[in-house]
Amino acid sequence: MDAPTQFEKPLSARPSPQPPEGCLAVAIRVPVRIVVLVLVVPVRLVWDGLVVSGRFLYRAVLRPVARAVFVWPWVALWRYVVVPLAKALGWLANALLLVPLVWLYRYVLTPVGHGLAWVAGRIAAGLVWVHARVLTPVGHACAWVLNGVAAGVAWVAGGVTAVLAWLGRYLLVVPAGWLYAWVLAPVGRAVAWCGRGVVWLVKAVGAGIGVVLYWTARILLVLPAVGLWRWVLIPVGRAIAWCGRGVVWLVKAVGTGIGVVLYWTARILLVLPAIGLWRWVLTPVGRVLAVIGREIWDALGHAWRIAGHISLAVGRILATLFRWIFVEPVSWVYRTVLTPVGHVVRDLVLRPAAEAARAAGRVTRQVLTDVRDSARQARADFRRMVFGEPQMPRPVEPREPMGDETRTLGRSTTVLTKD
């Protein structure tokens, strides 16, 4: 492998070629950036000052004020109003509702329920006994009696039904069958034959009348109408259609000519000047403005970044001056003046005062302890004077044997294992 080919970068790693810049961009780049930098630096300084002021204002004023106005009132309301009120309501609900309800359930409803259950059980037992010992035998007896009565009624009804059936057969059915077979059937056949004859006659008369009407309508209406359509209407319609096609062709020709004239007039008077204006005026001006705008935008970006560095340097300088002018003198005063004075005040004033306060507190606590002990002793003497000496508890006998009977590892004192 050749050396140039070995160390040659791949095509994907090569930087893409930059498009060539025009002379206008190169000519206006430096002046534009200088002017923009001069204009942007004060704006950036003001902006950074506003940012710093806003942060300080937010930390020192807005956030504490917001907490004091919006957070702390709600916290205080919750802590000192809502929570105590809720606890009070809970205590009232417990004292006024829960405890009475529990007492009512335990000492009223439960005994009443038990009593009602006992009464219901006794009533159910009585009803079961009545059903088993009284109602069931009575029901069986009633059922036996009703079965006998039903059997008798069924036997009587069967006999009556048989008699009525025999009478109906020989008094109604047999005469009706004879009447149908020997009277009604022949009469019906004769009537049907007469009806068929009448229908055939009506059909024949109707067919003759229809043939006559058909030929009359054909001769008087259809043939004249066909002749009128074939020899009059069709030629007239064809003539009208030919005239209409001619008129349409003429209108199309005139419209086409007018459209061509208007098209070329508009093209010459409007389109060609507009194309020339776009191509020879607007496009070059737009390209120049695009180059200027791009350079101004790039200059704004560079100027904003450079102004940021300048603003940072100015801020550091101001911070250093502030530290030299204000912070270090104040720190020196605090270290060299206020701290020794504070130590002297602490050693000569505050510590003796604290010791005196602690001694007074100890004396006060001792006095209160003595008073509390005296009050407790007085209460004990009063109880002893009124109620007498309290009964001393009896000593409990020890579970382990005493003296020689002490349990050892080598000797047992139980009954079962005693030596």
UniProtKB/TrEMBL annotation:
Residues 390-419 are annotated as: Disordered. The chain crosses the membrane at residues 34-58, 65-82, 115-132, 144-167, 179-200, 246-264, 270-292, 304-326. Residues 409-419 have a biased composition (Polar residues). Residues 396-408 have a biased composition (Basic and acidic residues). It comes from the Bacteria. Keywords: Membrane, Transmembrane, Transmembrane helix. This is Integral membrane protein. It comes from Streptomyces sp. R08. The lineage of its organism: Bacteria, Bacillati, Actinomycetota, Actinomycetes, Kitasatosporales.
